[in-house]
């Protein structure tokens, strides 16, 4: 099959639709205000692409290389994280080292053992992400070569967009890429910060809110993901059910606004619907 899992038509459609709107606004926007409005709105929307980008790097959407490289290029222009960076920095870096804070590419601990603040962590990890990805790539030359190719291709594309229309390029592509690179790092802080342990069942926080996991494709089942990072995102809830008794209750967290509110509203509407049927 061209798409390896049918359920991945959902994230693929989202990614392509957002990119299509980006291009429409970039080339056809009649005013700078409309461009700015979409740029601001898109930052929030593209935040969900960050999790889709993450999942794709663990389990590719397509069965053919050119399609995977193509959608990685698109997601790079949406999130600031180009293809193969997740593989090197995250899968071959963080996932191998998250139980050792001294080696972890996304380490939240200072050299003296203190926990970084979320701001310090975001600035440090975000600023060093590409350098560390390339460093990990020294052990994986093929992936490092792909990362370098993707960086160059993305920079060339951005240069063309800036040449064509610098304002639209800045608002639609450049600023969202920069912001979301750091926003992605900011969001990862809550996955592990403060959990200094070698026990994988105690090294990760989890979010089981259904709305959050619908929008992020089950990113909240983070312990399950770390235990089997090559497992497809749709299979994580089942794996979580198998291991949930091993996860301490204090390692379950609520998501931020607006996910709990949407979940409660959905539950209320469902209960009202059941009452009306009766």
UniProtKB/TrEMBL annotation:
Fatty acid desaturase domain boundaries? 30-250
Read off the Pfam families from this record. FA_desaturase
Swiss-Prot/TrEMBL keywords: Membrane, Transmembrane, Transmembrane helix
Could you say which cofactors this protein requires?
Fe(2+)
What InterPro entries does its record include?
FA_desaturase_dom
One GO term (biological process): lipid metabolic process
Q: Indicate yes or no for the key word Transmembrane.
A: yes
Q: Classify the source by domain of life.
A: Bacteria
Transmembrane region positions? Answer: 7-26, 32-52, 147-164, 170-189
Give the protein family. Answer: Belongs to the fatty acid desaturase type 2 family.
Protein name listed in UniProt: Fatty acid desaturase
């Amino acid at each position: 099959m061209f798409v390896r899992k049918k359920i991945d038509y959902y994230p693929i459609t989202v990614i392509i639709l957002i990119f299509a709107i980006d291009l429409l606004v970039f080339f056809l926007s009649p005013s700078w205000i409309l461009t700015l409005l979409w740029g601001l709105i898109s930052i929030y929307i593209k935040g969900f692409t960050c999790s889709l980008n993450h999942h794709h790097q663990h389990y590719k959407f397509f069965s053919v290389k050119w399609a995977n490289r193509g959608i990685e290029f698109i997601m790079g222009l949406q999130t600031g994280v180009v293809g193969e960076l997740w593989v090197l920095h995250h899968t071959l870096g963080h996932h191998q080292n998250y139980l050792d804070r001294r080696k972890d590419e996304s380490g939240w601990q200072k050299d003296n053992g203190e926990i970084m603040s979320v701001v310090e962590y975001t600035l440090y990890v975000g600023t060093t992400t590409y350098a560390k990805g390339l460093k990990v790539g020294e052990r994986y030359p093929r992936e490092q070569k792909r990362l370098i190719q993707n960086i160059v291709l993305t920079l060339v594309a951005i240069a063309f967009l800036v040449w064509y229309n610098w304002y639209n390029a800045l608002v639609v592509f450049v600023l969202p890429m920069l912001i979301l690179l750091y926003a992605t790092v900011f969001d990862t802080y809550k996955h592990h910060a403060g959990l200094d342990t070698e026990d994988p069942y105690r090294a990760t926080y989890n979010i089981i809110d259904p709305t959050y996991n619908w929008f992020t494709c089950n990113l909240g089942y983070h312990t399950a993901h770390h235990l089997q990072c090559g497992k497809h995102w749709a299979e994580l809830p089942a794996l979580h059910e198998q291991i949930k008794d091993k996860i301490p209750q204090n390692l379950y967290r609520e998501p931020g606004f607006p996910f709990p509110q949407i979940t409660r509203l959905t539950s209320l509407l469902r209960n009202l619907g059941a009452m009306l049927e009766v």
